[in-house]
Amino acid sequence: MKTKIKDYKNKSYNLLTIITLVPDSKGETIAKCKCKCGNICYKKLSMIKINHVKSCGCLAKSTRFTKNSKKKLLNDFSKLDAASAYWLGFIFGDGNISDSNKLQLCLGSESKKHLIKFSKFLIGSNIVKDYDNRCTFQFTSDILANNISKYGIIPRKTWYSTLKLPSDQLLWPDFIRGYWDADGWVSIKKQTNKNKVYTGYNIGICSYLPENLETVSKALPVKYKKPTKIKNRDLYQLIYQNKSEIKVIAKYLLNNHLYIDYKWKKILHLLD
User: Fold this and answer.
1) Domains and CATH numbers, the chain
2) pLDDT by residue (tens digit) across 241-266?
3) How far apart are CA 181 and CA 80, in angstroms?
């Protein structure tokens, strides 16, 4: 029997209120919900109905015991400034928080210096480890996990959590720049058209949830652009190729020197 949206819309189960239902690629019915804590999340309807899932993840965090890392936090994201807003966006894109409140970031070796910057920002020392051609950072903290959960950084966030910008709009460029450094790209290449050589620009960012990209698009100081689905993948992208728009976006985002150098240096000349 086909599940009807009207039978579940606005219905509450424990801490979750169902907003709408969406099918996934495996035929499961997924419920888009608003948690009592304020988070928007996506959960399997079947799990909600049998009380296996009761919240966005905040309920488990408030009741479980975890073993915290011994090193002291220098920055716990309880208050945001330009640097913490940037790293918050970066964690939303590339970070992973476990059910035991362990934060982990795993990047390519070319980004090791950047990950060390994060480690020193968070705890004042470098605990980044090398693993084959990757580098990893791990740190467990109940306080940290609770604070970053307010911005949608929860277990299994890739599929089930939507991006939340800081309340202070002055910090939006920093947050989005961090998110872009994690899940975005900046490309520039020479192209030929009718025997004329010109420079082509392409910047973009991707997400499994189009809502995240819509939030970014609405925040940027250019005309709103709707995210598009990548062919044959459950992935969406937000792309800008107009040089004038890219220049405006670059000026908006690069208002601070905290970013991945090798990514943005390709278009820094547009800021002159």
Assistant:
1) 5-62 (2.40.50), 66-162 (3.10.28), 179-271 (3.10.28.10)
2) 999 999 999 999 998 889 999 899 98
3) 19
